[in-house]
Amino acid sequence: MSDSNSSTAKSYLDSAIAQGQSALGSLTGSTGDKTEAAARKDQAATEKEASHTVGKLGPLNVSPSGGMSTDDPNRTEGSWNQTVGSAKETLGNLTGSTSLKKEGSEQNAAGKGQEAQGQLSDFGSGVQERVKGAAGGMLAGVTGDREKEEEMQIRHDNAKTKQRSAEADMAKQAEA
Fold this sequence. Notes:
By secondary structure, this protein is mainly α. The protein is built from five helices and three strands; from the N terminus they run ααβββααα. The chain has a three-stranded antiparallel beta sheet. Helix 1 (8-28) runs antiparallel to helix 2 (31-51), helix 3 (73-95) packs antiparallel against helix 4 (98-143) and helix 4 packs antiparallel against helix 5.
């Protein structure tokens, strides 16, 4: 189920190889090595980007590897509370109601905290389940249990999707 072309580790390895190949091309004056190194570096960047890509539709997440996850309910509820809180603040500003404005501000702030709590929960459980899936997959591979190995790969991919989704949302909020 996992797509080896979208592996973060593979992208780092390809990037390091590209650096070495570029250095070799510079030392020898080989434009072929330099061109191949540039292509490998671009491929590594694409691989890294693909390994961090998550499609999102509401609380549902999917990755290029086929991994799927759902958001922690606190993420969805927190986002809703922020939206409702902002609407109350705006309405309070328009009508001159300081109590409605204050209520909206408090609900908005509480929603931000609630969403952050859900993101941290998804990130933490994603990392934990990824490790369990990877370790379980290696053990199943060593013992030759292909069915268990595939099951552990699916577990890993789903957990990676959960982790990447939380990371993407946290990064968006950090930029805002």
